[in-house]
């Protein structure tokens, strides 16, 4: 996938992601794709064997993919978590906070614009999957 923006140091996962239904029918798949409305919690028993979980965004206004990412990270998933589909540059920072570390937008995003979007805010207000320290914690120890 040429349009993938990656923010990981490990090697690129080349195996195509299978659908959730196909994943449960295969014993050796290491990459799976969740579509809108599919429950990420179904993958929790398999997180240790997955190298890539791709979460589809068919519509930029659908926030279920953010929740899915957060659920997976909170349950210990450490592999690549990719947002794919209707992904916009102004969403990248929020997606990263939820746990996404790679993006495959339908329409190309300039890498410099993506980096600017991801580094725009020095401080955050709440805890999230990215382990950044909230500003209130810095203030009140």
Radius of gyration: 15 Å
Number of helices: 5
Question: Percent helix among the residues?
Answer: 25-40%
Main beta sheet strand tally, sense and closure: 6 strands, mixed
The gross shape turns out to be: globular
Strand adjacency order, main sheet: 1-6-5-4-3-2
Structural class, judged by helices and strands? alpha/beta
Mean pLDDT: 83
Low-pLDDT regions: none
Percent range for β-strand residues: 15-25%
CATH architecture: 3-Layer(aba) Sandwich
Number of domains: 1
InterPro entries: UCP030820
Descriptive overview:
With 141 residues, the protein is an alpha/beta fold. The protein has one domain (5-140): Rossmann fold, CATH 3.40.50. It is 27% helix and 17% strand. The chain has a six-stranded mixed β-sheet.
Features:
single chain, 141 residues, alpha/beta, Rossmann fold, six-stranded mixed beta sheet, 5 helices, globular
